[in-house]
């Protein structure tokens, strides 16, 4: 398992947290999602062989959010 910290743009309310959580948990290989609204980040614990970082970013884009990896 790998932890990936993503900076997410466009999060503004608790509904965004649920939307992002749902989008990422829908990816096979994602084990844990921790959304931090104030920091504008999401920490994802995932299996990089079945859920690479690009898949996480794509899922967030499809959900309406732009994101990019961020140093922990």
UniProtKB/TrEMBL annotation:
Record keyword Lyase present: no
Pfam families: HMA (PF00403)
Superkingdom of origin organism: Bacteria
Domain HMA span(s) in chain numbering: 2-68
MF (Gene Ontology): metal ion binding
Keyword Nucleotide-binding recorded: no
UniProt-recorded name of the protein: Copper chaperone
Record organism: Polyangium fumosum
